[in-house]
Amino acid sequence: MKIKPLADRVLIKPAAAEEKTASGIIIPDSAKEKPLKGEVIAVGDGTKDEPMTLQVGQNVLYGKYAGTELELEGVTYLIMRQSDVLAII
Fold it and tell me: Rounded to an integer, what distance in angstroms lies between the CA atom of residue 22 and that of residue 39?
């Protein structure tokens, strides 16, 4: 990975949006909801007040409007503060 987050920030690869409902109905692109979970790809070193508790490879849940979206080599990632992560799955 060419990106190393600074301080208490983490780089997350969002999970793919659902293609079908539980009953088998195909969801069009315009109606798909933004996923609220993803995999931690890279973590910063933390701050002296808040050490990093997240680790690379963990699956996490985050807030709907958390983070900044960026694209690297055709893949979309989110970069956000560790405090924006709600839970580890």
Answer: 23
Neighbour count for residue 10 (Cβ, 10 Å): 26
- Based on its alpha-carbon atoms, the radius of gyration of the chain, rounded to whole angstroms, reads 14
Nearest to 20 by CA among 7, 12, 5, 31: 31
pLDDT tens digits, 49-69: 989 999 999 999 999 889 999
- CA dist 57 → 11, 38, 51 (Å): 11, 10, 18
SS3 category, 86: strand
CA separation for the pair 1, 72 (Å, rounded): 10
Q: What is the pTM of this model?
A: 0.83
